[in-house]
Design brief:
By secondary structure, the chain is α+β, with helices and mostly antiparallel strands. The chain contains 14 helices and 19 strands. It has helices spanning 10-13, 20-27, 30-35, 54-63, 84-91, 136-148, 184-192, 236-247, 263-267, 284-289, 295-298, 335-339, 356-364, 466-471, and strands at 65-69, 75-80, 103-110, 116-126, 129-134, 154-158, 174-180, 204-209, 212-221, 224-232, 252-254, 301-302, 348-354, 387-388, 390-393, 399-409, 414-421, 430-435, 453-460.
Length: 482
């Protein structure tokens, strides 16, 4: 459950709280607590930041092939036992009516009020064995439900690596890689020593790499088939070396941790909604279960949207593009709340393509000796908190949604945001993204004093990248075609 290596402020040193609920009671307002958290942006540890240069690494997933190292930033929660499937069914908006062994789903969990707790990729490894792979919010929720709901299951966590190692050794149960891009299958077949069956999307198989038997998940990027591979961590080095050697003739590029998370700008997944756990009587026991070192207690809320009411940050599945996952063929936590919603009236997920001139003003502001100085836009990913909420307004300044994940794509030569906006806002509309926090910024270590700027942006399709929009498996990241 814990988050490693958070930075402690003087006020935090005096906190006597033993769980999230007590921490909230001491803090008073959850918004102020989270906006001034020192955790910073979500970490992608261990993997070197850049292995060549970030533009080359981004372009490779569109032009040749890439190797993504996912071994360190995600948590693996293994769930096994007679009630494993029932636990999943009771907590997921997804149907499990068609969930055979050797298949994966993008699992989405919601609170009793119907707001998204988080999502993960859920693999069915055997009849009574699953693994949930993703950020801590989903794993924490599953573990709590398993422990308090009377389920006959066994849980095992393989936590993400610490964000700051300081010379400590890294040890995991498994390594996890992805091979993606137009040349990915050539690399995969060379690794395999011959042809390999292209299974349907999100179906699992196996192969041998460098003498190790590994599991695989059929994936895809840039409109081309690819694979996710995983196996026992002892084989990490030799499998990675074998992939790089096989990929050399096909232009495979290993991708660093600086570039890896920016791929979602093109593919359209919003990874960072605020978990809606800070209010509600039904969730009090969960807040008492969550420790003060958990992600939910330490995450950094960032961006220009500021409300005194934490519930203004909560989002339902349709607002995040998960509407097609919601199936009412089973009972699950939050079912009645979602049943009461009209999907056509909910915000919808879009991409916002930033105006080049306004983007250039932000990039050039450090060179303007007399200012103005804007919040630094890091390349290729500009997020400076764990959960980002920038106000999206119309030309009159009225709030119409939130920009939640921002960066730059060298493939599109655009600054892009993933956002959720009011259903009345059409594709092609020009809106404003308010970049920077009010009042010169919060006390986060990732924020320096700055001015805000309203950036013009065009409401665009999601996924923004045409290959992803036209050729990704329907229903996975592409559920909103606008």
């Amino acid at each position: 459950m814990s988050v490693s290596d958070t930075t402690e402020t003087e006020s935090e040193k005096n906190v006597t709280a033993k769980n999230l609920q007590e921490l909230l009671d001491e803090a008073g307002n959850p918004v102020e607590l989270l906006r001034n958290s020192q955790l910073g942006a979500y970490p992608y540890p261990v993997v070197p930041a850049v292995l060549s240069n970030w533009q080359r690494e981004q372009k490779a997933w569109r032009e040749t092939a890439v190797l993504f190292d996912q071994s360190h930033h995600m948590l693996n929660l293994f769930v096994s036992g007679p009630d494993a499937l029932r636990l999943i069914s009771d907590t997921a908006v997804n149907s499990v009516a068609n969930f055979p062994v050797d298949m994966a789903k993008q699992y989405v969990a919601v609170s009793p009020a119907g707001h998204v707790i988080g999502d993960s990729i859920l693999f069915r490894l055997a009849e009574e064995e699953f693994v949930s792979v993703g950020r801590p919010t989903t794993a924490n929720w599953l573990e709590y439900q398993a422990q308090t709901g009377g389920y006959d299951v066994t849980l095992r966590r393989d936590n993400a690596s610490p964000s700051r190692l300081y010379g400590r050794a890294v040890r995991h149960e498994i390594w996890r890689f992805q091979i993606q891009g137009p040349n990915a299958w050539h690399v995969i077949e060379k690794l395999n020593g011959g042809p390999l069956e292209q299974l349907p999307f999100f179906r699992m198989g196996s192969m041998h790499v460098a003498g190790q038997h590994v599991r695989t998940l059929r994936h895809g990027m840039a409109g081309a088939p690819g694979l996710e591979l995983w196996g026992p961590y002892d084989g990490y080095d030799r499998v990675r070396e074998a992939i790089i050697e096989a990929g050399e003739e096909f232009g495979l590029v290993p991708v660093g941790s600086r570039v890896y998370p920016s791929n979602t700008l093109e593919s359209g997944w919003i990874p960072s909604p605020l978990p809606p756990v800070y209010t509600g009587k039904e969730l009090r026991s969960y807040r008492e279960w969550l420790g003060t070192d958990t992600f939910e207690a330490t995450l950094a809320l960032a961006g220009s949207f500021v409300s005194a009411d934490i519930e203004d940050y909560y989002l339902n599945p349709w607002e995040l593009g998960y509407g097609s996952f919601v199936k009412f063929d089973h009972d699950f936590i939050g079912r009645s709340a979602l049943r009461a919603l009209d999907p056509s009236e909910q915000r919808r997920k879009v991409t916002l393509a930033w105006n080049p001139e306004d983007f250039a003003k932000i990039l050039s502001s450090p060179a303007e000796v007399r200012g103005p100085g804007y919040q630094f836009f890091d390349l290729p990913l500009a997020n400076y908190g764990s959960c980002g909420y920038d106000s999206v307004t119309d030309a009159d300044g009225s709030l119409i949604g939130y920009s939640m994940f921002t960066g730059y794509s060298a493939n599109e030569r655009r600054a892009l945001s993933l956002a959720t906006v009011a259903p009345s806002v059409p594709v092609g509309a020009e809106v404003r993204v308010v970049w920077g926090e009010p009042g010169g910024g919060s006390r986060k270590l990732t924020v320096e004093p700055h001015e805000q700027i309203a950036v013009r942006a065009v409401v665009s399709a999601v996924p923004y990248a045409a290959p992803a929009r036209e050729q990704y498996q329907p229903g996975w990241r592409t559920t909103v075609h606008v």
